[in-house]
């Protein structure tokens, strides 16, 4: 069902899914409770997908991303990347976080990118330098290569984090609400830039967000999750523009909104 | 409907070209820039304090109770010229450095173990809460019993004074490293020693530096106090012993000269060494203003 629905957006019919999540249940312990973050979630990400996990807070989407990153183990089900089961964190799955402190403050922009490459043993110092500069140029930060993170604005920090993730040329780039801490204007700009970057290299993205407009804009495939615990509600295609459907007259975001909040009081949706 | 006359007209302006601004950036005046220098302000405070000392002491006019600054300086120069004071200072410093280095080594081992295992963390927390409040000098009698009248017992006491302050600060620094930064480090596939060295230590560096400074001050105080109590060993004593000797000979300017050297060494280490380290690390990284 999932594969046959695949349409636009660089959809290459892969023989097997690039990343596959099968019946994954995740639980974590707080001081008082054992919390089930998501329950038997299934989805497949194909190569070059811009796959979005969308849901209100508490649907376990960030926890799911952490599990894919290898930071926690599912209590049931399994996650495989290119056919291999995920064990521990590794540079084949680079993470981009929401927090500004994801950049190492004691390294310059360039060193932050090269450090990722050399620390993981991908490249030697010289090759890492070249690769880093290439990606820093790509995110238009060439002039700031020797600046320290505390001198940069929030949007620039997010760009460095993306450059760092892309420079590693990972199998999949995991983005955990990367633009949520940015102001609305910067956020919109970053979304455009991300899409441009994707046009250039067609890397595989798994993008977590709680904003419907962002999901519609970024994703070519959107997984909807319901909260407490997170369960799959549906999977939709998006072509990036939020035009009304000719048959129903309903836009994609209206459809998503209905699916997610059908039996709930209206919640504030922000851009 | 609103009255037509109340509707404000819209307008769009062309912003002025940069050149037409009067002042965009202007260098500060010389006095402003001088006042901005940290060391200038600090030197100024020191000069005021020195002047107050000189005025009060000459007003008091009692060398046995409170010699003037100039008398103290004379004694200081005398002490340096005869070679005694510098040798004593060096003796104290070399002992201090040995104790400090060993203290840091033990602190590194303890915190390293504490990071790796939960029981190690409990061990460190229990030990620091037991020994940190215990004044190092209180261990001197025991230390003398165990290690005899020699440098070894002084170094033992010094280790005790450095170890807990540094371990406590380093450990709390490690604990306060943000979850995101930890995840970033593990994302690169770092683990074990390289994870500690490349992520945790630089991320916790502000706290570690505070620990180093506190440890240094504790060690310096402990050493001078220990020398005062315990005095000479292996033929030559340190600054503490110098102060004690001068007091016994009622050469009070000499006592002041000894104290002044203790202060000056403390100031130099704090303002030259630690400040330079700060400027090259935490300040440059924007982790401390």
Descriptive report:
With about 270 residues, chain A is an alpha/beta fold. Chain A has helices spanning about 1-5, 60-70, 110-120, 125-140, 155-165, 185-200, 210-220, 250-260, and strands at about 20-30, 35-45, 50-55, 75-80, 85, 95, 170-175, 205-210, 220-225, 230-235. Helix content of chain A is about 30%, strand content about 25%. Chain A contains eight helices and ten strands. Chain A folds into two domains: about 1-90 and about 170-260, 3-Layer(aba) Sandwich (Rossmann fold), CATH 3.40.50.300; about 105-170. By secondary structure, chain B is mainly alpha-helical. Chain B has a domain at about 85-280: Orthogonal Bundle (MetI-like fold), CATH 1.10.3720.10. Helix content of chain B is about 70%, strand content about 0%. Classes of the chains: A alpha/beta (about 270), B mainly alpha (about 290). At the A-B interface, β6 and α3 of A face α8 and α9 of B.
Strand order of the largest sheet of chain A: 6-7-8-3-9-10
Biggest pleated sheet of chain B = none
Largest sheet of chain A: 6 strands, mixed
Rg of chain B, Å, rounded: 28 Å
* CATH homology superfamily name of the domain at 83-280 in chain B: MetI-like
Average per-residue pLDDT of chain A, rounded, comes to 82
Category by helix and strand content of chain A: alpha/beta
Which structural class matches the secondary elements of chain B? mainly alpha
pLDDT under 50 segments of chain B (min length 5)?
none
Number of domains of chain A: 2
CATH 4th-level superfamily of the largest domain in chain A? P-loop containing nucleotide triphosphate hydrolases
Looking at the overall shape, the CATH architecture of the domain at 83-280 in chain B is: Orthogonal Bundle
Radius of gyration of chain A: 18 Å
The multimeric state of the shown protein is heterodimer
Reported CATH architecture of the largest domain in chain A:
3-Layer(aba) Sandwich
Which topology of the largest domain in chain A does CATH recognise? Answer: Rossmann fold
Q: Helical stretch count of chain B?
A: 12
């Amino acid at each position: 069902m999932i594969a046959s629905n695949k349409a636009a957006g660089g959809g290459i019919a892969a023989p097997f899914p690039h990343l596959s999540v099968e019946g994954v249940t995740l639980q974590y312990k707080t001081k008082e409770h054992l919390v089930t973050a998501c329950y038997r979630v299934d989805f497949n990400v194909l190569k070059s997908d811009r796959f979005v996990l969308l849901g209100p807070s508490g649907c376990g989407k960030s926890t799911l991303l952490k599990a894919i990153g290898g930071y926690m183990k599912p209590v049931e089900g399994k996650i495989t990347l290119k056919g291999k089961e995920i064990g521990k964190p590794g540079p084949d799955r680079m993470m981009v976080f929401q927090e500004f402190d994801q950049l190492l403050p004691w390294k310059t922009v360039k060193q932050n990118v090269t450090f990722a490459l050399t620390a993981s043993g991908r490249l030697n110092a010289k090759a890492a330098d070249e690769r880093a500069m290439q990606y820093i140029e790509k995110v238009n930060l060439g002039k700031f290569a020797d600046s320290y993170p505390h001198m940069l604005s929030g949007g620039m920090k997010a760009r460095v984090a993306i450059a760092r993730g892309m420079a590693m040329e990972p199998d999949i780039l995991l983005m955990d609400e990367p633009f949520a801490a940015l102001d609305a204007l910067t956020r919109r700009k970053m979304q455009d830039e991300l899409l441009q970057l994707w046009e250039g290299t067609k890397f595989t993205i798994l993008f977590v967000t709680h904003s419907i407009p962002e999901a519609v804009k970024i994703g070519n495939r959107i997984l909807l999750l319901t909260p407490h615990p997170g369960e799959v509600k549906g999977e939709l295609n998006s072509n990036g523009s939020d035009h009304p459907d000719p048959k129903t007259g309903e836009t994609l975001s209206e459809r998503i909104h209905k699916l997610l909040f059908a039996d709930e009081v209206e919640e504030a949706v922000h851009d | 409907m609103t009255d037509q006359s109340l509707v404000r007209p819209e307008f769009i302006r062309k912003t002025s070209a940069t050149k037409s601004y009067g002042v965009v950036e202007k260098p500060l005046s010389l006095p402003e820039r001088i006042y901005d220098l940290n060391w200038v302000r600090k030197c100024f405070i020191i000069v005021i304090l020195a002047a107050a000392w000189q005025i009060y002491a000459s007003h008091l006019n009692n060398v046995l109770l409170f010699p003037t600054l100039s008398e103290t300086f004379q004694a200081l120069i005398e002490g340096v010229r005869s070679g005694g004071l510098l040798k004593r200072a060096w003796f104290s410093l070399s002992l201090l450095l040995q104790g400090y280095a060993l203290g840091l080594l033990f602190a590194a081992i303890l915190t390293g173990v504490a990071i790796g295992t939960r029981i190690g963390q409990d061990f460190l927390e229990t030990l620091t809460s037991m020994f940190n409040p215990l004044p190092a000098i209180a261990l001197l009698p025991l230390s003398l019993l165990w290690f005899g009248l020699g440098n070894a017992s002084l170094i033992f006491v010094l280790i005790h004074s450095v170890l807990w302050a540094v371990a406590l600060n380093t450990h709390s620094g490690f604990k306060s490293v943000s979850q995101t930064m930890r995840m970033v480090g593990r994302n690169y596939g770092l683990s074990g020693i390289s994870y500690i060295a490349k992520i945790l230590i630089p991320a916790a560096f502000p706290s570690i530096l505070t620990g180093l400074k506190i440890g240094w001050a504790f060690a310096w105080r402990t050493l001078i106090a220990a020398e005062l109590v315990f005095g000479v060993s292996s033929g030559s004593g340190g600054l503490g012993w110098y102060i004690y000797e001068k007091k016994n000979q009622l050469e009070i300017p000499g006592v002041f000269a000894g104290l002044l050297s203790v202060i000056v060494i403390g100031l130099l280490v704090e303002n030259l060494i630690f400040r330079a380290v700060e400027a090259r690390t935490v300040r440059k990284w924007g982790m401390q203003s």
